[in-house]
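Example record

One chain of 149 residues, shown exactly as stored in the release files.
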Amino acid sequence: MSQQEKRVIVSLITSLILFVFFAFYMFGLHEQGRLVGPDVYSLIGKSFFLLIGGGIAVSIVVQILVTIIHAIVTKGYEPMLNDERDKLYSLKCMQIILLIFSVGFMASMALLALEMVAPHIVFLLIIFSMFIANFIGDLVKLFLYRGGM
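Predicted structure tokens for this chain:
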């Protein structure tokens, strides 16, 4: 398994754990009745920035730990080399991520325009579409590294 594949797998696991944590946190706020009232948008915004900041910190720590553990187990160092193939895979995944996020954003705005959901739910749907887009993008990148296409 290449270093790039390991990074993608760690990214998938980390983002899944963070999103599950965020979903349970938001569900807990909903159960407490805190997702109503004038401060709901501020609460969702603060929670989102905590998710992003926490996600970056956790991702960096996990990547470092995986690299250290890999070096200890294999008793060697595998340099991270990026070539044209890696750049092409990253660009392809970025296209997919942007497409999925755009569809999720437009669907959220359509639900808001049709008054089918409350405005604070739209913010949560946008955050969900960001997660889904990133997760599917990482799955596609893993598929490409594993020899797909």
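Notes: The mean pLDDT is 88.
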